[in-house]
């Protein structure tokens, strides 16, 4: 919340104002605002480009689960399938307490009665955990109850895998058939078709610009809220949901003293509100010049905050239920990253009455939320490039088709392989980390210290009729850049090589990750050097020209052509005609 107020919202407001005033996407906007920092615009467009390369693959997984949900028994709810191992425990196979164990026994495939006479009737994972002698054929239910009770009912170990976990990693991704990035394996055609479907949806939603995407967004923006409210109502009616919600609403304030908490908060805010991706500049450029961008910024930020809070309630109500189901603490069942969406939540859905309906509903909601973000990222790239190359804007349908085709063949097919998950995680870790933070930091410096706080306030006054207050000016000039700089330094100091699911990425893979990050970060100094070389005059004159806004340069040229002398100082322009000012 603190970083949201002091960092996220001010930068959100700033980018909306810049995009609306300059009427251009990220690249052209920065080229006109402070020509020396045009590389910032290139960097944020490239960041969005890299994010697009892997983000749509994650959406394709959601689409895969959506189609797989159209069955009476969800495929990740049971063991005994071709992809399962002997260590599998199905969604219906968890034992929560002694009474449950005595009333109905669960084995690796389906529930059976309590009249168990042989250890072979118990799933291998449970046999291992309970310490049952496989040669003992005279077991009774009481023996099994005693064995389970002696372990304090904690029947799950690292060797045991849930059916949902095995479905995602072994059936959908087939990750077990790849040893890492140096062994990607075969292309998974079901995943490939799902990814192709995602790109087709994106294409027909963006090919005509805001005219087409605006209509689609009416559904993709509204339906998620219907879905969240429905899932929340269902979640709070589940046993154990109260504990999950209490855990969610009981913050540990002592953790505010740790730097990592602030880094995580900043990352969440940036990905949630979108500053630094070029998205806000692109969409704001389509606004009317006198649109109340301040109202838009405040309203959208509040909706975003409430949506995040509502999503947390939905997630933790179900996590509380899962914790109750397996007799664990909420913290022990929570996962980060894809595991939460594609393992923990589907497993919980599988145990609910009407699981098929809720699964279809959940993944449809997930798709609509994801598509909204995908549209935004792609539009940032399309607008940023089209502003620089007007030919692409005239033939937008062809340009968008070529862009998505490149996405699909350049990275899409690679992420659809059996080791594609490792590529997705590599891009996720390096594509929008340091490069995004550096771009946002330089954005604050360029606007606040070079373009000038008073100048940006004048621009906003010209659009809205009022000037931003002292809070916004302090945040833009001091608080926001300081916070972002802290995150950059902390991240570099505490950097560790990437590791996912016990797979440690080799040095060359981390090197590729750093090259991806450097490709966008290098845009900033390289473009500055290029502009400096191409600008005429002495070093001092070149530097002055490159920190002068484009419209001031154009006004000076027009004035000279008319015999008028124009000078500037303290963010004010002075016009002299025939020696009179």
Task: Summarize the SSE layout with pairings.
Blueprint: H1 2-22, H2 26-33, H3 38-68, E1 88-89, H4 98-103, E2 105-106, E3 111-112, H5 124-130, H6 141-150, E4 161-162, H7 163-172, H8 189-206, H9 210-236, H10 241-248, H11 259-273, H12 279-284, H13 293-326, H14 330-333, H15 338-350, H16 355-388, H17 390-394, H18 396-415, H19 420-430, H20 434-464, H21 470-493, E5 499-500, E6 503-504, H22 507-521, H23 523-534, H24 539-546, H25 550-561, E7 564-569, E8 572-577
Parallel strand pairs: 1-4
Antiparallel strand pairs: 2-3, 5-6, 7-8
Helix pairs in contact: 1-11, 1-13, 1-20, 1-21, 2-3, 3-8, 3-16, 3-18, 3-19, 3-20, 3-22, 3-23, 7-15, 8-16, 8-18, 9-13, 9-16, 10-13, 11-21, 13-15, 19-22, 20-21, 20-22
What is the count of β-strands?
8
Helix/strand/pairing class, anyone? mainly alpha
> What percent strand?
under 5%
- The number of helical elements comes to 25
> Strand order of the main beta sheet, please?
1-4
Mean pLDDT: 83
* Overall morphology: globular
The helical percent reads 55-70%
Largest sheet: 2 strands, parallel
Our Rg estimate from Cα atoms comes to 28 Å
Distance between the termini: 50 Å
Which segments are poorly predicted (pLDDT under 50) over 5 or more consecutive residues? 94-121, 132-137, 148-158
